[in-house]
Specification:
Elements: E1 7-10, H1 14-26, E2 31-34, H2 42-45, E3 52-54, H3 66-75, H4 81-89, H5 91-100, E4 126-128, H6 133-147, E5 151-153, E6 156-164, E7 167-175, E8 181-185, E9 188-191, H7 214-218, E10 223-224, E11 229-235, E12 240-241, H8 245-248, E13 252-256, E14 264-265, H9 274-283, H10 301-311, E15 315-319, H11 336-344, H12 352-369, E16 379-388, E17 391-392, E18 405-407, H13 423-439, H14 453-465, H15 473-488, E19 491-493, H16 494-509, H17 511-514, H18 523-548, E20 558-561, E21 564-565, E22 577-584, E23 587-594, H19 605-613
Parallel strand pairs: 1-2, 1-9, 2-5, 9-18, 19-20
Antiparallel strand pairs: 3-4, 6-7, 7-8, 10-17, 10-22, 11-12, 11-16, 13-14, 13-15, 15-16, 20-21, 22-23
Length: about 625
């Protein structure tokens, strides 16, 4: 079977499929999609109460512009200006392509695509097709690329990137059925495997998503802003973000012991009065991500109180059947902002479930589809990692520090510290489009097959060295992920970061002797765990160096000394620097540079037109 192509895309989420859709529309033929399962991944399986897509304003009389949107993205901190400008400039183009493909984004009777305000958004650029927006995007793009006869090879888990002379030349994949290794060769490689979701135990990522970011670092690609994540409240089973209307319905927060007994309300202990508590719960709806700026006097105090209960060995639940602090509950206790919102929504109803049903019934239907009846039972939650804002460093074409290797979607580290809600979906579409356009600036040719014997033998050796009579893989994966969530998630214990980093390095060095599997059926899980450990090592290195440089309390990272939060001024408070982490000669090098500003190019039409015709950029 043919294994040489001009372009290979690894992954089958919305960003990967956007790249393929663009390549095919431009006329490329030698294109291959490699995926371990066409039905897996975050795009196809994740969502929230109304999953947000962020784009340029396309309705109403509120002024907006490409440069203004770019400035909003740039002002989030630790964002390169060229990437921010690209994400703003192509946002309408990519959004309207999705509309043409059938994604049902709402419009009014005049054809305007209406919007609403989301977190970190000064305009009303956000829109949504409902709780499953990214799933609809993925399905629409898949239908398009299949119609264009894109070749898809399912059951192929990409494990290692083949690099020669500083350029990506292919990938080695594990066939999940035969458990054999196959090299695929290409001139251009696009990596779209999403974020490293298995790093943490408490995550909102769907169970059908794992990521494969470590392969990029092993190949020598640099990471950017690996300290930066987005954390927020999410349900444990199923994994789902409890943002938006789930919070604005004002559910009751309770905690229990590990067996579900000793139930008590606990939020009121952390607020000055009932009105402050109720308002903070409401504001979690559109201030959903954990934000250290709101951790001591704002809505993110809710996150800290939830996390404190869990760290004390208790379980936390939302109960939509009863009002919080029921003996004194009253809408008049809310702030004017929260009171007016619920009043205008017609949501002055008796219970949280009635309010949720009135404002967003599909949010209830989602849980019902997963076997959870919010009318009859509590919903267990935790403070969860939901999205990695850092990732692999890319330029304005989403090309990594390795030539001809592109990273698109969540795996690309373009989001900085504070990104507007929904901007990740836009960034994935823009990144896929930009990579495709850079690739098509070169003539299409078949790649040359290289000798990959040593790389394949190394993978075989790793696999067979771990075979044993008994398996400890699942147990070790759970233990390691729980420890990462305890030490280096939203709350980061500075002294523990270093010791856990050394532990991670030791585990990788002794992986063959410490990690065991009982059969070849665990091969995929084994390689995923190894890849996760590589990603974790890079992330912990970034966090440790950031802390040692004086950095504290930024974005979704609250740094502590012996469990005591540090409230002093943060390192790089204005987000003017980007931290790079890269493997070099067996060691990890960390460096910091200033962000690139938003370009101020000549926009005189004839000059741009001439450069466009002559393909000068």
């Amino acid at each position: 079977m043919k294994n040489t192509f001009d372009t290979i895309i690894v992954g089958m989420g919305a960003a990967a499929l956007k790249c393929v859709d663009e390549l095919k529309r431009i006329g490329r033929k030698s294109v291959l999609i490699l995926t371990d399962d066409v039905l897996d991944g975050t795009s196809r399986n994740a969502g929230s109460d109304k999953q947000t897509y962020y784009k340029l304003t396309l309705s109403g009389d509120e002024p907006d512009s490409v440069r203004e949107m770019a400035q909003t993205l740039f002002d989030g901190g630790c964002v390169d200006g060229p990437n921010a400008l690209c994400e703003a400039a192509l946002s309408a183009n990519c959004f309207l392509r999705l509309c043409d493909l059938g994604v049902p984004f709402p419009m009014n009777k005049y054809g305007e695509y209406i919007g609403y305000k989301t977190d970190h958004d000064p305009r009303r650029r956000a829109t949504s097709a409902g709780p499953l927006t990214s799933k609809m995007m993925t399905e629409a793009l898949e239908k398009s690329v299949r119609y264009q006869n894109a070749e898809i090879r399912n059951g192929q888990m990409a494990l290692r990137i083949i690099v020669k002379d500083g350029a990506a030349r292919g990938v080695i994949a594990l066939d999940l059925e035969t458990k054999t290794f196959t090299p695929y060769f290409c001139n251009h490689l696009v990596w779209a495997t999403g974020g490293p979701s298995d790093v943490y135990a408490h995550v909102s990522y769907p169970t059908k998503h794992h990521g494969m970011t470590g392969a990029l670092y092993l190949a020598g690609a640099a990471g950017a802003n690996l300290t930066e994540w987005q954390n927020g409240l999410g349900s444990v089973q199923p994994r789902w973000n409890v943002s938006g209307t789930y919070m604005q319905a004002l559910p009751k927060f309770v905690s229990t012991d590990k067996d579900g007994n000793d139930e008590r309300e606990f939020l009121s202990d952390g607020f000055k009065d009932a009105g402050d508590m109720l308002t903070s719960v409401f504001l979690k709806g559109y201030q959903w991500p954990f934000d250290v700026r709101k951790a001591f006097d704002g809505s993110s105090r809710v996150d800290l109180l939830v996390q404190a209960e869990i760290r004390n060995g208790r379980r936390v639940f939302l109960d939509f059947r009863a009002n919080p602090i029921a003996d004194i509950f009253d809408f008049s206790l809310l702030s004017k902002e929260a009171y007016d919102y619920l009043k205008n929504a017609g949501a002055f109803l008796d219970t949280p479930i009635e309010r949720l049903s009135h404002m967003n019934y599909p949010a209830i239907e989602f849980y019902a589809s997963k076997g959870v009846d919010l009318y009859a039972e509590k919903l267990e939650i935790a403070l969860c990692a939901q999205h990695m804002n850092g990732g692999v460093m890319v330029d304005q074409w989403w090309e990594t520090t390795i030539k001809n290797l592109y990273a698109v979607g969540e795996v690309a580290g373009t989001h900085g510290v504070y990104r507007p809600g929904g901007s990740a979906l836009n960034a994935g579409q823009v990144g896929g489009a930009r990579a495709a356009r850079k690739i098509t600036r070169k003539a299409e040719t078949e790649a040359i097959a290289l000798d990959a014997f040593s790389e394949i033998e190394s993978l075989k050796n790793l696999l067979h060295s771990c075979l044993s009579d008994e398996s400890n893989l699942d147990k070790r994966r759970r233990e390691e992920a729980l420890e990462m969530s305890r030490i280096a998630a939203a709350i980061r214990e500075k002294t523990a970061l270093s010791s856990f980093l050394e532990h991670t390095k030791s585990l990788l060095k002794n992986f063959k002797s410490e990690i065991k599997i009982a059969s070849m059926e665990e091969a995929a899980s084994l390689f995923r765990f190894y890849d996760t450990l590589v990603s974790r090592m890079m992330i912990l290195t970034a966090m440790e160096q950031y802390a040692l440089s004086g950095g504290v309390n930024r974005g979704s990272g609250l740094y502590t000394e012996n469990g005591i939060p540090q409230e002093n001024a943060p390192f790089d408070p204005n987000g003017k620097n980007i931290q790079a982490v890269k493997m070099q000669n067996g060691e990890i090098a960390v460096s910091v540079r200033e962000v690139y500003p938003i370009p101020e190019d000549d926009d005189f039409f004839e000059n741009v037109w001439r450069e466009f015709r002559e393909n000068k950029w």
